[in-house]
Each structure stands twice: as C-alpha cells, then as structure tokens.
Write a structure and sequence with these properties.
250 residues, mainly alpha, three-stranded antiparallel sheet
C-alpha cells in the first residue's frame, strides 16, 4: 500500500522531496562564492553578473540564486536591478568599527582566561600562524587568518564567557575580508607572532593584568597595521576610502 501511495504522490510533493538537493547545491555555491569574496579574490565593490558567476564556479542558475539570496542577506552583495550584483565595499570605517570592538573584548577575554588556558594548545596554534605558506597570495591570507582566528578563539573559549565567544567569533569572521584586502592586495604577510608568545606566557602564569595589557596592545598594533594596508589597497584600486580613514604618517 505504501508503494502505491508513493507512486500516486502529486508532482508538487515530489518537488518538495527533491528540494533538499537544490538547497544543498545552493549552500555549496554560497560557500564557494563567499570564500572568494571574503578572501578578496573578488574585490570589494566589484560588479558581477549571474552568467559570470555561473561560468566561474560551474553552478546552475537555481543554485546560484539561492547562494546570491544568502549573500545578500548577509550583506556581502547587493542587487543592482538589470545590472547584476555589486560586492559590498570595505571602507576605513569598517576597520575602525571592527577593531573598536576587538580592543574592548579581547583584553576582557585575556583577563578572564589567565590561568585557565591550555599552553600546549596555544603554542600549537601560534606555531600554525608561523607555518610555511602556500605560494598563492590569496591562500596565504586564508591560511594565516584561520590560524590566527583559532588562536584568539582558544583564549576566548578559555575565558568561559559564551556570549563573548559568540560576539568575538563574528568579529573575527568580518575581519577576514578586511585583512585580505589590506595584506593580500598589498602582497605582504602580517607579522604579529611576538605578541602571541608573550600573551601565552602571561596567560599560563595567571597574570591577568599583564595578559590584558598585551592583548590590548596587540589589537591596537594590528589595527594600525591593517588600517594602513587597507587604505593603500583602496587607493590602489580606486575605491572610496569612506569616513574615519585615520592613517599613520609613518
């Protein structure tokens, strides 16, 4: 009886059964395109069309539209009627806002994590930040940012503050595109590992004051480095700087 009922299933129900496959392909297309946008292999402000994306990523129209809908919802692209889509720009204001939150949250996480970290884990993650990089510049930034993100998130997790972890995780995701634009386009690699080692020492020793101080200095130093590189990249690509372009003169 069940087999007979399945054979008589209306076309609309059959389409609903097939929907998970379309959703899966749309999710795969979303992941592919998002990775290219976040790593700035598709530059901020670039205009793209559906045929271009279908050809570049080898995806069908239905899957692509699912992906573009999610990318639009996440703020990474916006629709331009009759002209395709534009990738969201990155401005100096974005750098300011992201790092303003990091400089508030990461010292707090370091203070709370003092004496509670796994030293072997942090040393392993710090070593990954120094690891030999692939030849491709875009992949270098991908590799570095994943290692760096894991290091900072391990400290946040050790703090025991779940809300801080969730907030910082989102910030570090947003920062990936900012760093890729600054350092990837300028073809240089961030050099911040000395702070990592000092931070490990203070965290392991349970020195909350020193850990908080190093964490704050680390974020502030990286903010200045990133701002300089982002502004240089924006100027090189002819993109608008936007407000709050505080650039050092050094």
């Amino acid at each position: 009886m069940a087999g007979a009922r399945d054979e008589q299933r209306p076309p609309r129900q059959a389409a609903e059964i097939a929907m998970p496959e379309a959703t899966l392909r749309g999710a795969q297309a979303y992941d592919l395109i998002r990775r290219e946008i976040v790593s700035c292999r598709i530059l901020p402000g670039a205009r793209v069309t559906e045929p271009e994306l279908m050809d570049r990523f080898g995806v069908g129209k239905a899957s692509l539209r699912i992906a573009l809908q999610r990318l639009t919802q996440s703020g990474l692209v916006c629709s331009i009627p009759r002209h395709g889509y534009r990738v969201a720009p990155v401005t100096a204001k974005d750098v300011d806002e992201i790092f303003a939150l990091r400089v508030a949250l990461e010292p707090l996480a370091a203070r709370a994590a003092a004496g509670r970290v796994n030293r072997a884990q942090l040393e392993r993650l710090e070593q990954a930040c120094r690891g030999k990089m692939p030849a491709d510049v875009g992949n270098q930034i991908d590799f570095f940012m994943e290692a760096n993100r894991s290091f900072h998130m391990a400290i946040a997790v050790a703090s025991g503050n779940e809300r801080l972890c969730r907030t910082l995780s989102g910030l570090l995701d947003e920062m990936t595109r900012v760093v890729a634009l600054g350092f990837g386009v300028q073809r240089v690699r961030p050099n911040i590992e000395s702070d990592h080692m000092l931070l490990i020492e203070h965290l392991t020793a349970g020195d909350a004051d020193a850990a908080e101080q190093v964490a704050r200095r680390h974020v502030e130093t990286f903010r200045d480095m990133t701002m300089d590189k982002v502004v240089a990249s924006l100027r090189a690509t002819g993109a608008p700087l936007g407000p709050s372009a505080h650039v050092s003169n050094g």
